[in-house]
């Protein structure tokens, strides 16, 4: 059995081909790294046979405390936490962004082990897309795909759905953990689960921020020190919207926030205020409705996004 796996610092590496799992393995006691869908399915079957509940955290790696907060939440609510790391080529509309996306697998393994992740799925591309990427399914996302990220990153949400659909089929989790940081993505994935008839529950976790308010993001490491100090401008623009928010037209507030962004040398793609439930863009606020301010902007070559649910006493994303 020894040649089937090796244990290092509490991590069990499974080989590429379907493993013969040791009969009495208790998976909760160390982290298993699985590199093929076949091995993952063998493992999931065993967990299901043992009656375990599964929480799933899909990521693209280059992990930071925001990702790890999702793992912690998943741990609280499930017997087993599965994390995937896959930099999904089909969701990058800009090939340069895909090429430059940070990849820090060794450090990610270390962080996940420490955070108490049970299973790390690290698939190669041809395991996620066994027949290539030319003829992947198309998902009817409707209005959600025509606005904001959908408008500025054509094809992005189709790519997100393609990878998450495949991962959900393999992992079959009870709960799917997502970050509010990617607000529109949360809504798209809710739609995906309803389109595919998945019974998994979506759990949306709050955005973790750096001390100066910048939302944690894998892309932040690409900012140089000048850009990094300016980058807090997105958060300042969001807090400006929050503090200036009043019933009536939103035009002047958006203009003021835009001004703050350009003072920080951001090049905005959009700054919008939308209905928090439907993402319908709002020109005015009635003083009651739960809304969300969303910003996407370039700092140098790096595109950052952030959002804030308003008014602040509504600050939690309604699951
Ligand atoms: P990514 O690796 O960027 O695809 O992100 C994987 C998951 O982590 C997504 O559900 C993100 O919304 C979530 N996430 C990313 N950044 C943060 C953050 N700062 N706080 C909380 N969750 C986050």
What would you say this structure looks like, in words?
By secondary structure, this protein is an alpha/beta fold. 35% of the residues lie in helices and 21% in strands. The strands form 3 sheets. Strands 1-2-3-6-5-4-7-8 form an 8-stranded mixed sheet, sandwiched between helices. A 3-stranded antiparallel sheet has the order 10-12-13. α8 (183-196) links the parallel β7 and β8. α7 crosses α8 (183-196) and α10 (233-244) runs antiparallel to α11. The protein is globular and about 55 Å long. The chain starts with 5 loop residues before the first strand and ends in a 9-residue tail after the last strand. 37% of the residues are buried. Mean pLDDT is 91; it is low at 1-10 and 15-28. Adenosine monophosphate is lined by residues 59-60, 66-67, 69-70, 178-179, 181-182, 205, 207-208, 215-218.
Describe the structure concisely for a colleague.
This protein is an alpha/beta fold and 319 residues long.
The overall pLDDT average reads 91
Low-pLDDT runs: 1-10, 15-28
Helix and strand succession?
Answer: EEEHEHEHHEHHHEHEHHEHEEEE
Distance between the termini: 44 Å
Gyration radius from CA atoms, angstroms: 20 Å
- Overall shape: globular
Number of helices: 11
């Amino acid at each position: 059995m020894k040649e089937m796996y090796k244990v290092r610092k509490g991590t069990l590496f499974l080989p590429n081909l379907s493993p013969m799992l040791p009969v009495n393995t208790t998976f909760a006691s160390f982290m298993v790294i699985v590199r093929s869908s076949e091995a993952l399915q063998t493992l999931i079957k065993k967990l299901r046979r043992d009656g375990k509940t599964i929480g799933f955290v899909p990521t693209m790696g280059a992990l930071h405390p925001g990702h790890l907060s999702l793992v912690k939440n998943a741990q609280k609510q499930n017997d087993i936490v599965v994390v995937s790391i896959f930099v999904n080529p089909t969701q990058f509309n800009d090939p340069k962004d895909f090429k430059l996306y940070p990849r820090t697998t060794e450090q990610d393994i270390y962080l996940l082990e420490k955070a108490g992740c049970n299973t790390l799925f690290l698939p190669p591309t041809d395991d996620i897309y066994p027949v290539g990427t030319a003829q992947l399914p198309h998902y009817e996302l409707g209005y959600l795909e025509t606005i904001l990220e959908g408008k500025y990153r054509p094809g992005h949400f189709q790519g997100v759905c393609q990878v998450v659909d495949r991962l959900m089929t393999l992992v079959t989790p009870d709960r799917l953990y997502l970050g509010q940081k990617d607000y529109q993505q949360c809504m798209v994935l809710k739609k995906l689960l309803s389109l595919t008839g998945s019974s998994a529950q979506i759990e949306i976790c709050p955005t973790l921020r750096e001390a100066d308010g910048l939302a944690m993001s894998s892309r932040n490491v690409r900012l140089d020190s000048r850009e990094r100090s300016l980058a807090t401008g997105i958060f300042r623009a969001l807090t400006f919207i929050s503090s200036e928010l009043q019933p009536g037209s939103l035009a002047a507030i958006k203009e003021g926030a835009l001004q703050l962004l350009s003072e920080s040398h951001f090049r905005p793609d959009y700054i919008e205020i939308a209905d928090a439930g439907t993402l319908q863009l709002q020109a005015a606020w009635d003083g009651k409705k739960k809304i969300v301010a969303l910003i996407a902007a370039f700092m140098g070559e790096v595109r950052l996004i952030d959002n804030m649910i308003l008014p602040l006493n509504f600050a939690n994303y309604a699951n």
